[in-house]
Amino acid sequence: MRRAIVADPTQNTTGLPRPRHWVYGRKGRPCLRCGTPVAFRPGERTPHGRETWWCPRCQPD
Question: Is the separation of the CB atoms in 26 and 38 below 8 Å?
Answer without folding.
Answer: yes
